[in-house]
Amino acid sequence: MTVALRSDSGWRAQLVPSYPDLFHPAGDPLAAEGWPAVDDGWRELLERACARIRAAVRDDGGSFRATQIKEKYGSLRFYWSGRLSPEARTRVEEAIDLAEARTATTCEVCGEARHRKLRPRSAVSCRIQPRAAARCARCLRSNGGVLPLIF
Ligand SMILES: [Zn+2]
């Protein structure tokens, strides 16, 4: 999945170079450590988080480096390293926590709210389709309808 997304020339390839202070190495988006390996539905949430992180890092004068951005168990994971004051670290963590919390109820594919979660048999669904937990019912259905949907 990550490999496929890395060839993408859309919003990810614009987001990464527009935040050279957050993504390294700067200048080559496809080589960036923190390349966002997530689908289009989370674009806005991620862009907002990056703007908030930038503001916190700039005010602080410290360093920040996105190390991995991905989906796991139906929500965003945004890993980073850097040297920031405790205050700036708190602001960054708040921005990331907020984005991660919102992705838990936002479809990774279409960006629509998803209130219903896959329940017990989701472990089976996720083996068939690893990212099923991050998708709304409509996107799951439009994907061939092969999944047993349990609400
Ligand atoms: Zn959807």
Describe this structure in words.
The chain has 2 domains: 2-103, no CATH class; 116-151, no CATH class. Helix 3 runs antiparallel to helix 4. The model is unreliable at 145-151 (pLDDT under 50). The protein is built from 6 helices and 3 strands. The chain has 151 residues and is an alpha+beta fold. Residues 107, 109-110, 112, 135-136, 138-139 line the site of zinc ion (ZN).
Tell me the number of helical segments per DSSP (H or I, 4 or more residues long). 6
Shape: globular
Profile the largest sheet: 3 strands, mixed
Measured by DSSP, the beta-strand proportion falls in 5-15%
pLDDT < 50 runs, ≥5 residues: 145-151
N-to-C span = 27 Å
- Give the strand order of the largest sheet, numbering strands 1, 2, ... along the chain: 1-2-3
Number of domains: 2
Key attributes of the depicted protein:
151 residues, alpha+beta, 2 domains, three-stranded mixed β-sheet, disordered C terminus, binds zinc ion
Fold topology:
Elements: H1 2-6, H2 11-18, E1 36-37, H3 43-60, E2 65-72, E3 75-81, H4 86-103, H5 122-128, H6 137-141
Parallel strand pairs: 1-2
Antiparallel strand pairs: 2-3
Bound molecules: zinc ion.
The site of zinc ion has 8 residues, from helix 6.
